[in-house]
Structures are given as structure tokens and as C-alpha cells.
Write a structure and sequence with these properties.
The structure is a single chain. With 187 residues, the chain is mainly alpha-helical. The two termini are 20 Å apart.
């Protein structure tokens, strides 16, 4: 593997004490600083906006479990063929589910995985939002409600899918590379 995180040559900004503390917390909890954070480190304002949104969507209060949110990240990233997010969030699905085969199925084709009706509805919505956002209609939201999701949950599904569509496009544009450690996690 190359040591480059992205194909761009962006000098990192001088790290504030807050960023140093955040990166230290990542090291402590994850054993690494995710390359996506290092990629954004050239501009602390952009880094903070990215981390604030990510942390709220993926770790904040929600009717969706952490695993469900990671499943959305993987399903969207699979449609978009995002190498970075499939490596990083595939590892998260393996870890949170405790099932490495399930994590691999999610990365390759979520429809091959043993999913509940609720999970299928959630992921089909996220995929439709990824592939055909202009074709989302009330029947799509009604299907989520029928599967047991509240309107707040629907907002969270849409926001998580949208965030990963944005992240996938940035990662593709700059050829962002995942940390090598992700490939061996939770296997």
C-alpha cells in the first residue's frame, strides 16, 4: 500500500488543541486515526463540519441502531463502489454484528444477507435515494412506516444515506485510501 491518503497534495493545517485531542480520542477508542479525518485535516473548519455531522448521524440519538446506520453506510457505499467507505464501514458492520460473513454480504450485496423486513425496507429506501432520488414518493415513506419506522427515523435514514452519498463522492474524487487496519478488523 502507498502512504498517501489521497491523490491530492494538501498540506495539513496547524492542528488546534481540540483537533489533537479528537485525534488522540480516535487513537484511544479505535486504535487509529481514520484516514478520512486526516484527509480533511488540511482545513479545520471542513474537518469540524464533517466530524460534527458524522458524529450526530452515526452516534447521536436515533430510533436507528448503530448497526442499522452502519448498514445504510455500507449499502449506499456498495452502490457507489466507494472503496474507502466499504473498507471502513464494512469493518464496523462486522464488529457491531459480530458476524464477519454478514459484514461481507453487506459489502457485496445486502440483498444476499439474512435481513429483517424492517432492515430490507430501510436499505431499499436508502438505495433508491442513492440511485433515483427524484423518484422518491409518498409510497416509499409509507413502506418505511409500515415496516415500523417513525417519521423521525425516516429523516435519519435519508440523512445517513445522503451523508454517505456525499462522502462517497468526495472519497472517489480524491482517491481516498482506507487505513490498512480496517481490512483485518472483526474477522
Amino acid at each position: 500500500m502507498t502512504d498517501k491518503i489521497t491523490a491530492l497534495d494538501l498540506a495539513p493545517a496547524e492542528r488546534s488543541e481540540a483537533t489533537k485531542a479528537y485525534f488522540a480520542k480516535c487513537e484511544e477508542k479505535l486504535g487509529l486515526v481514520p484516514n478520512v479525518l486526516l484527509a480533511y485535516a488540511f482545513d479545520e473548519t471542513k474537518l469540524r463540519a464533517f466530524t460534527d455531522m458524522y458524529n450526530e448521524l452515526m452516534l447521536g440519538q436515533s430510533g436507528l441502531s448503530k448497526l442499522e446506520r452502519e448498514m445504510i453506510a455500507v449499502a449506499v457505499s456498495s452502490i457507489n463502489h466507494c472503496y474507502y467507505c466499504l473498507a471502513a464501514h464494512g469493518a464496523a458492520v462486522r464488529q457491531l454484528s459480530g458476524d464477519s460473513a454478514f459484514g461481507e454480504m453487506m459489502v457485496m450485496n445486502f440483498r444476499a444477507a439474512d435481513l429483517s423486513a424492517r432492515q430490507k425496507a430501510m436499505l431499499e429506501f436508502a438505495v433508491k435515494l442513492t440511485e433515483q432520488p427524484a423518484k422518491i414518493v409518498e409510497a416509499d415513506r409509507a413502506a418505511l412506516r409500515e415496516a415500523g419506522f417513525s417519521d423521525r427515523d425516516i429523516w435519519d435514514i435519508a440523512s445517513t444515506a445522503a451523508f454517505f452519498n456525499m462522502s462517497n463522492r468526495v472519497a472517489a474524487a480524491v482517491d481516498m485510501r482506507p487505513n490498512d487496519e480496517y481490512h483485518a478488523m472483526a474477522r
